[in-house]
């Protein structure tokens, strides 16, 4: 039980860090400091399916000097001779790579010059290159898209992590200039616009985007606007909440241990004062009192340090905060709105980056649940069982210290298997380590106290 608890808590915190960091890196140099506007065909039946190039450029000028990336997503066939492979095709502008990270394994990425010159060039994924050419060294070769030849100028690595595999195959296989896409397929429309976040994006990001759209002559109601800053805040705080739970329990355990020690000192002083005056009693119990003072000071310092490491500002969406503290009807209405929203989204097809965010959120929720609602109770129960079995405290701590590197190795292997880097900082080790040690010592202390009380009770019964 102790090992399972350590695995779920420490592994959950580390994997939460790994998953969120990997998700951030997938979003280019801007990470999640951005806002996304996606054409919502379900909201406006009269919509033409997206933006024309001049409309997207007008919106980008309104958002200047911050960068804007826009893209048209299509499904088509990549053709080489008689071989044809279905692929997800992205027509992008020159700043798209600031919002989408991918590793080049050959050639070069699309440049702004290629977009401006409407060049018929393509950057393809390694998997598609292997399907068409049985090789990834394909720079300079030609494939057909929409029946028109495009020169391959680069190949990017498209090995997918576990989170990406959970995102329902929303990966991109081919990037081409959006200008070239519109030349060869005039019916294509730009459906995704990503805008670098302003400093106040957490508060008025959506309002600013709608204002820029209105000034650019666009209808904001035809778009689904996502504040990625707030989405990132919600998901990343799950790790902080789990860490907060560990730190809070550790602070509580330290306080209980100190109070018990002070109670012991008070009892000793009362016994002394029954036969001695204050100066003699203080001299007799000076070592005990000094140790209690040091313990209290150490507890205060330790608790302050833990609180400094675990405290954070909890984000709650403003529309989920009722005007009254207790308002059951408010939450019933909110749940009804969520159900209606899910029903309305039945025909909505999310963009690849939306699928990635949803998959990250689901995995983060599962890890937080495993660590907080399973890991913490399991470890506390295991520590109690250790104490009940009268395992010596040094032996308990020795076993605990042996568990931690084994768990770290397992979590590292799980992270690598999932395709992300295992990340856990010293602060997280410090908080979880304090929780583990304090919980074991506290359980051992409770067991000893119960045993002493049992011995005293048996003595009373024998006396009677």
How does the SSE layout of this entry go?
Layout lengths: L1 H24 L8 E6 L13 H11 L4 E13 L2 E10 L11 E4 L4 H5 L4 E5 H8 L8 E4 L2 E9 L5 H4 L8 E4 H7 L7 E5 L4 H15 L7 E5 H46 L4 H7 L1 H25 L17 H17 L7 H37 L4 H25 L8 H38 L1
Parallel strand pairs: 3-8, 5-7
Antiparallel strand pairs: 1-9, 1-10, 2-3, 2-6, 2-9, 4-7, 5-8, 6-7
Helix pairs in contact: 1-8, 1-12, 1-13, 1-14, 8-10, 8-12, 8-14, 12-14, 13-14
List keywords for this structure.
464 residues; 6-stranded mixed beta barrel; elongated; alpha+beta; 14 helices
End-to-end Cα distance: 42 Å
Biggest sheet strand line-up: 2-3-8-5-7-6
Please, how many helices? 14
Unreliable residue runs: 451-464
| Structural class by helix and strand composition | alpha+beta
Write down the overall mean pLDDT: 84
What is the β-strand count? 10
Instruction: Compute the CA-based radius of gyration.
Output: 30 Å
Determine the strand fraction and express it as a percent band: 5-15%
Commentary on this structure:
The chain has 464 residues and is an alpha+beta fold. It is built from 14 helices and ten strands. The protein has helices spanning 2-25, 53-63, 112-116, 126-133, 162-165, 178-184, 201-215, 228-273, 278-284, 286-310, 328-344, 352-388, 393-417, 426-463; strands at 34-39, 68-80, 83-92, 104-107, 121-125, 142-145, 148-156, 174-177, 192-196, 223-227. A six-stranded mixed beta barrel has the order 2-3-8-5-7-6. Strand 2 and strand 3 (83-92) form a beta hairpin. The chain is elongated and about 105 Å long. The two termini are 42 Å apart.
């Amino acid at each position: 039980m102790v090992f399972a608890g350590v695995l779920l808590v420490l592994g959950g915190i580390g994997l939460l860090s790994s998953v969120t960091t990997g998700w951030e890196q997938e979003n280019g140099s801007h990470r999640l400091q951005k806002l996304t506007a996606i054409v919502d065909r379900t909201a406006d039946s009269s919509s033409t399916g997206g933006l024309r190039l001049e409309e997207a450029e007008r919106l980008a000028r309104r958002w200047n000097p911050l960068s804007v990336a826009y893209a048209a997503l299509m499904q088509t066939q990549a053709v080489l001779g008689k071989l044809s492979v279905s692929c997800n095709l992205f027509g992008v502008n020159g700043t798209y790579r600031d919002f989408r990270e991918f590793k080049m394994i050959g050639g070069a990425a699309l440049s702004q010059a290629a977009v401006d010159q409407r060049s018929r060039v393509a950057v393809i994924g390694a998997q598609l290159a292997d399907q068409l050419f049985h090789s990834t060294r394909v720079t300079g070769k030609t494939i057909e898209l929409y029946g028109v030849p495009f020169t391959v100028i680069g190949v990017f690595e498209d090995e997918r992590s576990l989170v990406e595999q959970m995102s329902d195959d929303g990966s991109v296989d081919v990037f081409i200039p959006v200008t070239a896409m519109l030349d060869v397929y005039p019916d294509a429309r730009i459906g995704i616009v990503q805008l670098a976040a302003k400093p106040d994006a957490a508060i008025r990001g959506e309002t600013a985007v709608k204002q820029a759209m209105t000034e650019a002559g666009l209808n904001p109601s035809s778009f689904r606007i996502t504040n990625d800053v707030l989405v990132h805040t919600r998901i990343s705080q799950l790790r902080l909440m789990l860490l907060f739970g560990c730190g809070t329990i550790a602070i509580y355990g330290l306080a209980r241990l100190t109070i018990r020690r002070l109670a012991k000192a008070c009892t000793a002083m009362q016994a002394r004062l029954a036969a001695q005056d204050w100066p003699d009693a203080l001299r007799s119990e000076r070592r005990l009192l000094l140790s209690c003072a040091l313990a209290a000071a150490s507890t205060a310092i330790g608790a302050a340090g833990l609180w400094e490491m675990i405290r954070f500002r909890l984000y709650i969406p403003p529309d989920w905060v009722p005007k009254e503290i207790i308002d059951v009807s408010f939450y019933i209405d909110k749940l009804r709105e969520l159900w209606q929203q899910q029903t309305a989204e039945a025909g909505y097809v999310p963009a690849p980056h939306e699928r990635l965010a949803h998959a990250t959120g689901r995995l983060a929720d599962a890890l937080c649940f495993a660590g907080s609602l399973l890991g913490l109770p399991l470890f506390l129960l295991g520590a109690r069982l250790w104490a009940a079995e009268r395992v010596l405290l040094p032996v308990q701590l020795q076993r605990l210290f042996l568990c931690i590197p084994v768990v770290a190795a397992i979590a590292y292997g799980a992270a690598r298997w999932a395709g992300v880097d295992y990340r856990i900082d010293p602060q997280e080790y410090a908080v979880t380590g304090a929780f583990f040690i304090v919980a074991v010592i506290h359980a051992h202390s409770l067991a000893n106290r119960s045993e002493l009380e049992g011995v005293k009770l048996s003595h009373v019964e024998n006396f009677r």
